[in-house]
């Protein structure tokens, strides 16, 4: 109850007087408690029915635990959405080094364009794919060996079943789109309340081969298997990654002749590669809400957009592009870095042509809602990690707080465009930290003796516990602020007339990956 929770603060001073009540209120308004999320299991069931997921590579063998978890879960969902919509092209916005893109391409046989603003990331993706080719060869080699073993073990007992099983396993390894199972019909309206309007029904194709056909096919399977393996190895050959855009291409600043020249180059590349399919193409380009994807991807077709931890405004712009472009049939976006969002009502300056990251929905725009940078910074904190004992870096936060006092009192600087960054991990002491930080801020540290620096440290060190308590309150409040940002994006999608269904889905384990919620939407089939 709002009246009960408001008593956590003093009516006159507005100071916090009941921490327990404050924590309960924060939990009450967290996303996990509001009942607005659609369970991932329900989404997958509605999209895929009883079909089995692809088998093959395991991302944990060439990614860290966090990235492996994210890529494996999200790629399965993306593949399910792509199959439901009948599309084979995926655009990965903010693709970074291509972890998700390359996995979607290899594991699920999708043609993926990974777009990132950093040319160093694009180059890194190129090198990473070269290394992944080795892993893919190893997996295929192991798969062939296991396949033979399984076939020999079952040959005497049930020869027909063995041959059918053999064919099924190999087809899964080769990411064949056909399935041996009759997957039946899936009615997506069971996924969410009927008010969402998502009542389209998808009938998945069934395999009509008879058992006799399967037996005939598997008799020649052993001969064809090596050829199929070689074909799969061409999914990500070391020289197949085309970096269509070099770092000097900037979507917002391209002249007309540059666009024409780039289009011609891309078309020539497409013609040369016309015999290849299901590749991962990293592209270097800065994406804005006005970006024309057709200028970047010349063979743009019906596709879906994805984004794994798209930073700041990029998450909002991904949703805007999705709603504006008829070729994009679905979107799955997991945002991050809320502190980098631009806010329409944060400053009093009028910028009518500016496209803001927050708010997106008309309701909050009409309210003139503003979070502010401090609140957005808090939204980035990880309550679930703190809850399992991964405590906040109190000492580094204390160093940073005292540094701010020094900079304000000694240098008279209250605002700077420069950042200290990860100076704490490189510093041997507080004095060393301050001197390194002042250099980064381009402030003269020669007028500040070591004794003066240590005086500031001694003056405030007894308040370190206060700082820790304050930051714990920020952590408790973090989910509430994240709720506001995510619901704003969901409401924006609900306001669009061409959206069949949209929802928030918790994809990841929040301890492994704190930014774990995906905004998902599918367009009406007529759009």
TrEMBL record:
Domain Methyltransferase: 66-344
Record SUPFAM superfamilies: S-adenosyl-L-methionine-dependent methyltransferases
Cross-referenced InterPro entries: Methyltranfer_dom, METTL25, SAM-dependent_MTases_sf
Name of the protein this chain belongs to: MET25 protein
Organism: Certhia brachydactyla (short-toed tree-creeper)
């Amino acid at each position: 109850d709002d009246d009960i929770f408001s008593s956590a603060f003093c009516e006159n001073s507005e100071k916090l007087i009941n921490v327990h009540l404050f924590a309960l209120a924060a939990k009450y308004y967290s996303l996990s408690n509001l009942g607005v999320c659609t369970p991932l299991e329900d989404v997958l069931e509605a999209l895929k029915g009883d079909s089995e997921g692809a088998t093959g590579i395991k991302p944990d063998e060439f990614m860290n635990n966090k990235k492996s978890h994210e890529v494996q879960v999200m790629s399965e969902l993306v593949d399910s959405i792509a199959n439901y919509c009948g599309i084979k092209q995926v655009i990965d916005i903010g693709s970074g080094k291509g972890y998700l893109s390359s996995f979607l391409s290899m594991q699920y046989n999708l043609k993926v364009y990974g777009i990132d603003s950093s040319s160093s990331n694009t180059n890194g993706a190129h090198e990473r794919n070269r290394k992944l080719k080795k892993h893919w060869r190893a997996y295929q080699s192991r798969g062939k060996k296991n396949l033979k073993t399984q076939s020999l073990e079952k040959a005497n007992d049930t020869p027909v079943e063995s041959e059918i099983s053999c064919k099924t396993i190999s087809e899964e390894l080769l990411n064949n789109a056909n399935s041996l199972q009759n997957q039946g019909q899936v009615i997506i309206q069971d996924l969410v309340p009927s008010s969402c309007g998502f009542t389209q029904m998808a009938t998945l194709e069934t395999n009509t081969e008879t058992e006799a056909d399967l037996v005939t096919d598997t008799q020649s399977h052993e001969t064809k298997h090596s050829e199929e393996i070689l074909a799969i190895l061409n999914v990500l050959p070391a020289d197949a990654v085309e970096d269509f855009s070099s770092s000097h291409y900037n979507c917002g600043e391209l002249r007309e002749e540059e666009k024409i020249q780039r289009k011609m180059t891309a078309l020539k590349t497409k013609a040369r590669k016309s015999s290849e399919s299901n590749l991962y193409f990293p592209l270097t380009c800065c994406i804005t809400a006005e970006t024309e994807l057709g200028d970047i991807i010349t063979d743009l077709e019906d596709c879906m957009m994805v984004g794994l931890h798209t930073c700041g405004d990029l998450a909002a712009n991904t949703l805007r592009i999705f709603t504006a472009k008829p070729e994009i049939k679905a979107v799955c976006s997991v945002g991050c870095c809320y502190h980098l969002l631009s806010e329409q009502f944060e400053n009093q300056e009028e910028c009518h042509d500016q496209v803001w990251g927050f708010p997106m929905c008309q309701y909050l725009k009409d309210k003139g809602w503003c979070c502010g940078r401090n609140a957005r910074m808090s939204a980035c904190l990880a309550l679930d990690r703190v809850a399992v004992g991964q405590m906040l870096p109190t000492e580094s936060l204390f160093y940073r707080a005292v540094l701010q006092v020094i900079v304000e009192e000694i240098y008279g600087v209250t605002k700077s465009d420069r950042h200290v960054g990860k100076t704490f991990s490189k510093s041997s002491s507080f004095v060393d930290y301050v001197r390194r930080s002042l250099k980064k801020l381009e402030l003269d540290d020669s007028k500040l003796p070591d004794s003066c620096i240590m005086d500031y440290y001694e003056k405030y060190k007894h308040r370190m516990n206060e700082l820790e308590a304050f930051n714990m309150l920020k952590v408790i409040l973090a989910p509430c602020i994240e709720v506001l940002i995510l619901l704003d994006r969901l409401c924006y999608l609900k306001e669009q007339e061409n959206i069949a269904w949209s929802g928030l889905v918790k994809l990841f384990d929040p301890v492994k990956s704190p930014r774990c919620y995906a905004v998902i939407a599918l367009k009406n089939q007529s759009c």
